[in-house]
Amino acid sequence: MLVELERLTADRDAAVQAAALADPDFAPLPDGLIARGEALETLAKTSNWLAMRIWLVFLTIVVLDISAILVMSLMPAPQTVVLGEALTAEIAIRQALARAEQATSEAMASMFDARIRAAEAENVADERVSSLRAAIETRRMLNKQVNAELGRRFRKAA
Q1: 86 three-class SS
Q2: 128: closest CA among 117, 136, 116, 139?
Q3: What is the pLDDT of residue 58?
Q4: Alpha-carbon dihedral of residues 6, 7, 8, 14, nearest 10 degrees?
Q5: How many Cβ atoms from other residues are within 10 Å of residue 66's Cβ?
Q6: Are the C-beta atoms of residues 51 and 44 closer than 8 Å to each other?
Q7: How far apart are CA 153 and CA 148, in angstroms?
Q8: What one-character DSSP code corresponds to residue 76?
Q9: How big is the CA angle at 116 (ends 113 and 120), to the nearest 5 degrees?
């Protein structure tokens, strides 16, 4: 029975709405935020009490918004944020130091490699000079032996 009553009420509302929309003189009442704002403004113009209450509500909302902004801007940052920023900065510094140390060690290693190559080149040059000196010394000895032998042969022949 209750279901049937709800159905009949809904049918009646639909029939009334259809009849109202079919009437050519029907003009629906404005419904929306702007229409409600205009209606509230009209009521506020007729009642000073209501106008003051509207301004108090508006002022309260503005004060709450400004106070939230002030709290956010004037309060110190939470300790976890500050510590996080400090740790991030320390990590960045340590990474920069590590890169600098690595670059320094690579430069030293290349310098040592250059010194080793220079020493090897000097050793090769020293060995070449030593072998040339030994060859010159051998030629001198052979030259002396040949000269001595030739001197002996020419003395015998003379």
Answers
A1: helix
A2: 136
A3: 93
A4: 110
A5: 10
A6: yes
A7: 9
A8: P
A9: 140
Position 158 pLDDT exceeds 70? no
Checking if the pLDDT of 129 tops 80, the result is yes
Whether the per-residue pLDDT at 138 is higher than 70: the answer is: yes
* Cβ-contact 54, 42 below 8 angstroms: no
How far, in whole angstroms, is CA 148 from its chain's centroid?
A: 89
pTM to 2 decimal places: 0.37
Which residues, 6+ apart, have CB-to-CB distance to 131 below 8 Å?
A: none
Side-chain-side CA neighbours of residue 36 (13 Å): 3
Q: How far apart are CA 60 and CA 70, in angstroms?
A: 15
Dihedral (CA of 65, 69, 75, 79) sign: positive
- The CA distance from 104 to 69, in Å, is 50
Tens of pLDDT, residues 77-110 = 778 888 889 999 999 999 999 999 999 999 999 9
Tokens of 66: 């400004």
